[in-house]
Amino acid sequence: MTNNLMEDFMALNRREFLKIMGGTTAALAFPGVMFQGCKKALEQAAARTNIIWIEGLSCSGCSVSLLNKLNPDIVTVITEHISLNYQGVVMAGTGSVATRILEDAVKKERKDFVLIVEGSIPTKNDIFCTIGEDEKTHKGIGVRHWVEELGKNAMAVVSVGTCSAYGGIPSGKSPALGENQTGAVSVQEILKDKVVLNIPGCPPHPDWMVGTLLHVLMKGMPKLDEYNRPEMYYGKTVHEQCERLYSYKRGIFAKEWGDGDGCLYNLGCLGMDSGCDIPKRKWNDGASSCTECGSGCIGCTEKVFPDYGRRGIYQNLHADKKSDQTDQAGILSKGVKGGIING
Q1: Are strands 49-55 and 82-87 parallel, antiparallel or unpaired?
Q2: Does the model's pTM come out above 0.85?
Q3: Does an H or E element contain 136, and which?
Q4: Which residue from 342, 11, 221, 134 is spatially nearest to 20, judged by alpha carbons?
Q5: Is the distance from CB of 251 to CB of 332 less than 8 angstroms?
């Protein structure tokens, strides 16, 4: 929050504050902020790191995943660790009231915030994804403009989700046209001169997003792999940590999706070639994982997801066009290792 905005807010009484923040909606969403004294909360917010979170071509799944954060819960993160200046999914403000935050950040060349981008960026025409409109022309402002203008001054840029990190589903080619109509690309392709920290996944686990962000704020940039992903979350393959690794080593393979026992490789699990710690971390506060429940890994944390390279989804991994690894003996004898099969 800028100093001018802070001064304006501090002059408001509780009723005026609630009106600007969206009335009862804001009160229900953040009761700790609303009812424990809005001015005190604003004073504390001024001392926290500012976050501007914008969305490009996406389904908002990363935002929804973030809201499932349980330890610490997302309200604690927002009220104690960061100051969430802008986030289209959870903020109460809409229209020009909301986009004014982005406009002010650009005009004042603010450098006191971390920019988080969810979704890929269209390059063929701004009309494919706009945030706000130009007051003079009344035309929509493309998300690419905001990424470029905010990104050049941000203290750090973080891509959340595979769409933002690599292009993802919005950048896929149309089977009919053989190309992508939007020209969707990753944030790194837009901000070529900056190091963009990638947190891929479709969606990424909430722990990855919050943990990486808090690491950046409290300890600095975490150790990254070749794809600019935090090694602490993406350093090992799903296969290495899989609950079904025991079965794989003994040549026991599942016959159908959902089987309670057996390695899922023959059915098309991509865990050998996908880096993340979901089998250990699990989803929904430790309830289960993609592999444990029998659905297999679809490789959503990798750059080739979903239709690049030669693997697709639910297809057997293969080291070359001539090899046939669909049989048990072939898999075990070739000693396939994660991260080297497709590209």
Answers
A1: parallel
A2: no
A3: none
A4: 11
A5: yes
Q: Which residue has the tokens 């075990």?
A: 332
Contacts of 175 (CB under 8 A, 6+ apart): none
* pLDDT score, position 227: 95
Is residue 253 within 8 A of residue 247, CB to CB? The reply is yes
The string of DSSP letters for 82-114 reads EEEEEETTT-S--HHHHHHHHHHHHHTT--SEE
Domains 48-234 and 236-343 fall in the same CATH topology: no
d(CA 266, CA 327): 7
At 154, is the secondary structure helix, strand, or coil? coil
Instruction: Name the strand (E) or helix (H) holding 196.
Output: strand 196-199
> In the Cβ-directed half-sphere of 230, how many Cα atoms lie within 13 Å?
24
To which CATH superfamily is domain 236-343 assigned? Cytochrome-c3 hydrogenase, C-terminal domain (4.10.480.10)
* pLDDT (tens digit per residue) in 190-244: 999 999 999 999 999 999 998 898 888 888 889 999 999 999 999 999 999 999 9
Task: Give the residue extent of every domain in the chain.
Answer: 48-234, 236-343
**Average pLDDT for 289-300:** 93
Class of domain 48-234: alpha beta
Tokens representing 70 are 């349980």
299, 311 Cβ separation under 8 angstroms: yes
**What count of other Cβ atoms lies within 10 Å of the Cβ of residue 71?**
10
